[in-house]
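User: Here's a structure from my thesis project, written as C-alpha cells. My advisor, Dr. K., wants to see whether a designed sequence matches the one we expressed. Can you design one independently, without my sequence as a hint?
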C-alpha cells in the first residue's frame, strides 16, 4: 500500500490504493455523481466517459478452467484460498472487464440508442500491433503508446461522438414561464 486509507462518510466507502480495488473507478464515479446531484440520481448522466490506458482484446491472460484439484489438508486449503484471492484481484484490476460489468449493471436495452450514446470508454486496443500491453512501470513504452493512441483516435468515430456529446451537454434550457395544458391544447414554454 502506498497511500493511507481514507474513509468518505458521504459515500460510506473506505478508499485504499486505487490500483488494487478500483483500478477503473467508473462505478464509484457514477455513485459520486448521484451524491453530488441527488435530484438527478435516477436519470442517466449527460455523458459518462471512462478513459483507459490500453488493452489487448485478443489476449487470454487468464484461464477460466477450475485448474487442478486442490490437495487435502491445511496447505491445500491455503493454496486454494490464495488462488481465489489472486483471481479476485485480477478481476478487480482488469479495467476493461470492470467497464463491461458496469454497462451490464445499467441494463440498457440493445435498441436504446439514446441511453447508449451517454456512456463511452476510450481505451486503445493493442490487438494486431504485435506489441503486448506495457507493464505498469514500463516508462520506456510511453512514447510508442502515446503515438499509437493518437493515430488510433484521430480517425475514431467514437472520439467524435464523445466530443459532440460533451459540446451538447454544455447547453441547457432554463424555463422562465409555462402556459397551457397538454391535454387541452398547445403548451407554451418560455425561457433562455
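Assistant: Designed independently from the structure alone:
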Amino acid at each position: 500500500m502506498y497511500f493511507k486509507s481514507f474513509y468518505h462518510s458521504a459515500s460510506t466507502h473506505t478508499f485504499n490504493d486505487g490500483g488494487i480495488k478500483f483500478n477503473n473507478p467508473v462505478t464509484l464515479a457514477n455513485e459520486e455523481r448521484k451524491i453530488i446531484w441527488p435530484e438527478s440520481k435516477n436519470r442517466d448522466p449527460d455523458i459518462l466517459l471512462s478513459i483507459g490506458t490500453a488493452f489487448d482484446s485478443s489476449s487470454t491472460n487468464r484461464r477460466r478452467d477450475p485448474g487442478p484439484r486442490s490437495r487435502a489438508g491445511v496447505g491445500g486449503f491455503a493454496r486454494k484460498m490464495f488462488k481465489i484471492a489472486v483471481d479476485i484481484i485480477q478481476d478487480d484490476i482488469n479495467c476493461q472487464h470492470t467497464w463491461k460489468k458496469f454497462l451490464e449493471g445499467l441494463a440498457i436495452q440493445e435498441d436504446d440508442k439514446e441511453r447508449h450514446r451517454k456512456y463511452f470508454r476510450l481505451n486503445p486496443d493493442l490487438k494486431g500491433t504485435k506489441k503486448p500491453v506495457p507493464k505498469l512501470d514500463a516508462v520506456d513504452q510511453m512514447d510508442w503508446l502515446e503515438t499509437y493512441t493518437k493515430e488510433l483516435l484521430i480517425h475514431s468515430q467514437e472520439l467524435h461522438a464523445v466530443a459532440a456529446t460533451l459540446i451538447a451537454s454544455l447547453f441547457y434550457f432554463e424555463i422562465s414561464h409555462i402556459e397551457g395544458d397538454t391535454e387541452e391544447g398547445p403548451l407554451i414554454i418560455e425561457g433562455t
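When you compare it with your expressed construct, this may help: Residues 6-191 form one domain.
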